[in-house]
Amino acid sequence: MGSVIDYIECPNCKDEETHIEYWYKTGEEYAFCDKCGYSRKAFIKNRDKKLTELTDEDWDVSEIKNPYGVFRASSKDNPGILLGTLETEKDLEELKSKILGGEEITTESGLFVDSFIVSRFIDGEIIETVLI
User: Fold this and answer.
1) Strand (E) or helix (H) holding 98
2) Within a 13 Å sphere around the CA of 76, how many CA atoms are in the beta-carbon half?
3) Which residue spans within the chain are E strands per DSSP?
4) Which residues make Cβ contacts (< 8 Å) with residue 127, sequence separation at least 6?
5) 17: which DSSP letter?
């Protein structure tokens, strides 16, 4: 399956490097701003059907227009960075509690966090807070 990756202006914080990936054979897309946490996705839920048979119910479509923020977590043992949208302050507090308690925050890789940074779009500015 092929995709096109591009950058758009974030509709929330206006950052011009918001990542968007579009899968041209299926019409699926994912947009994510790593500065403020804005995200938009449109994915097919039911892959048993042909594209021409899909209805609105076969799609998972969502948009987080005004997120609380975005987190970036990394580990010395893993070369990647885990990014995610924080929809609410409660989401941040729950994640912070897990990380500071030494819990894994991914089910796939068992990432233990050595670095944890939160970015928020507040009053027209991106504010970064280093928690670890």
Assistant:
1) helix 89-100
2) 2
3) 4-8, 18-23, 28-32, 39-44, 59-64, 69-75, 78-86, 115-122, 125-130
4) 119, 120, 121
5) T
Max Cα separation, the chain? 48
Residues 95 and 72: beta-carbon distance below 8 Å: no
Q: pLDDT tens-digit profile of 1-23?
A: 689 999 999 999 999 999 999 99
Amino acid in position 4: V
Contact between 34 and 19 under an 8 Å Cβ cutoff? The reply is: yes
Determine the 3-state secondary structure of 93 from DSSP.
helix
- 3-class state of residue 23 by DSSP: strand
Residue 11: partners with Cβ closer than 8 Å, 6 or more residues away:
38, 65
Measuring CA to CA, which residue among 101, 94, 107, 106 is closest to residue 118?
A: 94
Nearest-Å Rg of the Cα atoms of the chain is: 17
pTM, whole model, 2 decimals?
A: 0.83
Instruction: Give the three-state DSSP class for 90.
Output: helix
Q: How far apart are CA 47 and CA 54, in angstroms?
A: 9
Distance between CA 7 and CA 85 in Å, rounded? 18
